[in-house]
Amino acid sequence: ATNRTFTMIKPDGVENGHIGAILEKITASGFRIVAMKFTQMTKADAEAFYAVHNERPFFGELVEFMTRGPIVAAILEKENAVADFRTLIGATNPADAAEGTIRALYATSMGENAVHGSDSDENAAIEGAFHFSGREMF
Ligand code: CMP
């Protein structure tokens, strides 16, 4: 069925000049943009968004990284959006990401991995609602 996922081009992807190339790959892969903005997360935003990881050893580093500069946040729609987007971005660690995936092409490291993709329909809805109001979704 047609469903939605949530993505962010993370601060490293923005800093390294990859916004255009990443959006081109996303739209060329059949995703429709439902919502999109250029924004920066505060520390409180990142701590809330990544609350599920707050016991992990890398949590502080993750919050520091995700707040250090602007991101592109977007909601995307397609048949099987969550799973297909995770295939398009590749494994969390770019060293393990399949050839041609967004992380293989544009990520720096496990922590600075260029893009986020929701891991379930439920989290896609939660994460999309974190960044966008109903009137920002089209
Ligand atoms: P993502 O899956 O988008 O959201 C959680 C993030 O935590 C993940 O991307 C990585 O950027 C980061 N992360 C996961 N594992 C590690 C790790 N071992 N060290 C540093 N960062 C990590």
From TrEMBL:
NCBIfam families cross-referenced by the UniProt entry = PRK00668.1, PRK14545.1
Name assigned to this protein: Nucleoside diphosphate kinase
Write down the superkingdom of origin.
Bacteria
- EC assignment: 2.7.4.6
* Gene encoding the protein: ndk
What are the alphabetically sorted keywords of the record? Answer: ATP-binding, Cytoplasm, Kinase, Magnesium, Metal-binding, Nucleotide metabolism, Nucleotide-binding, Phosphoprotein, Transferase
**This protein's record includes keyword Zinc:** no
Q: Which family does it belong to?
A: Belongs to the NDK family.
| Catalysed reactions, semicolon-separated | a ribonucleoside 5'-diphosphate + ATP = a ribonucleoside 5'-triphosphate + ADP; a 2'-deoxyribonucleoside 5'-diphosphate + ATP = a 2'-deoxyribonucleoside 5'-triphosphate + ADP
CDD domains with a match to the protein in the record: NDPk_I
- Report domain Nucleoside diphosphate kinase-like positions: 2-136
Q: What class of enzyme is it?
A: transferase
